Amino acid sequence: MIEPGQPAPDFTLPDQDGKEVSLGDFAGRTLVLVFYPSDFSPVCTDQLNVYQEVLGELEERGVHLVGVSVDSAWTHKAFQADLGVTIPLLADFHPKGAVTQAYGLWNEEYGVSARALVMVGPDGEVRWAYRSASPIEIPGANLIFDALDQQRAA
Amino acid sequence: MPTSSSTPWTSSGPPEQGPDDHVRGEGPLVVEYADLECAFCAKTNELLAGAPVRRVFRHFPMTSKHPRARRLAHAAEAASLQGAFWELHDSLYSDQGRLDDPHLWQRARELGLDLERFESDRRSDAVAERVERDFRSGIRAGVTTTPTLFVDGEAHPGVPGAELLARLGCT
Fold first, then answer.
1. pLDDT average per 10 residues of sequence, chain B (171 residues)
2. pTM summary value
């Protein structure tokens, strides 16, 4: 997994509407990349829903949240509507998992991403990274706030 | 007591019973984070009925998934101000198909609540604040799904399985 202090690997991926989103779009802001294994698995459903509940609070702190999985933009569109969330979802679909691999989060056995959170600072450097011990362990939103507080204290 | 707006969102330990929690039953403490528009929570309520445990209910409305969740939480708090929290809680869980305003009025009438007071209370800042405080305590405890039960400080997400139910003395 990518480590704090390393430059975040650049990416350009389509979101759920097919619009290209790049790491550079978030320059000067804090970005949290939410890597998750798969759209429509019950576990992810709760994860993005709970982050959606605190999105206003994160935005107030200038933090942007973006989901990433190997599903296609079309699937992301349906998934986002099904969940009722506004968090943009990026399709690491073709070449499959290339960005996930660059972040060191590839799960070779299942051909999906590990469940992980990566916080990228305004300067494009990784500030914090958390990988769930297992795909069924959902990192709580509290961990994001902990990481933000640590950033502020540092 | 700090207001929700000054409460941080960072990690806390597992939740403990607070002075103004909704509590019922006697026995080991079970702190439950739940959403009143959540079928899995309704099921859990059914499974835990009559269990020899001290149940603490905390609101964890997932509004993106359940658009009525926060409104129902506010209604339950308004009922609580008339001493009928658990009555409305059980009423909502027993029939998840009727959760809109006219149904709430009907339920409040059936419980013998002062409807006018119920209406103003459920829209009050104090009630919203009370629900928000529960929600934030859940975020701080790392809750990511409803229901989540905390037993002996350990989180159990989802509808409790046979093993946990046996441990809680449910038969």
1. 64 92 96 97 95 97 96 98 98 97 97 98 97 96 96 94 94 73
2. 0.94
pLDDT in tens, B60-93: 999 999 999 999 999 999 999 999 999 999 999 9
Class of domain A12-153: alpha beta
Nearest to B63 among A45, A53, A139 (CB): A53
| Closest chain A residue by Cα to residue B155 | A137
Output the domain CATH number for residue B83.
3.40.30.10
Distance of CA A22 to the CA centre of its chain: 13
ipTM of the complex: 0.92
A99-122 burial, b for 16+ CB within 10 Å, e for fewer? Answer: bbeebbbbbeeeebbbbbbbbbbe
Catalytic-labelled residue, pool A8, A44, A89, A144: A44
Query: How many CB pairs lie under 8 A apart between chains A and B?
Result: 63
Report the domain count for chain B: 1
C-alpha span between A100 and A102 (Å, rounded): 5
Selected residue of B139, B140, B146 to mutate for chain A interface (largest A Cβ count, 10 A): B139
Known catalytic membership, residue A85: no
Q: Determine contact, residues A55/A65, Cβ cutoff 8 Å.
A: yes
Which residues in chain B touch residue A45, judged by CB atoms under 8 angstroms apart? Answer: 65
Domain that holds residue B83: 24-167
Domain extents in chain A: 12-153
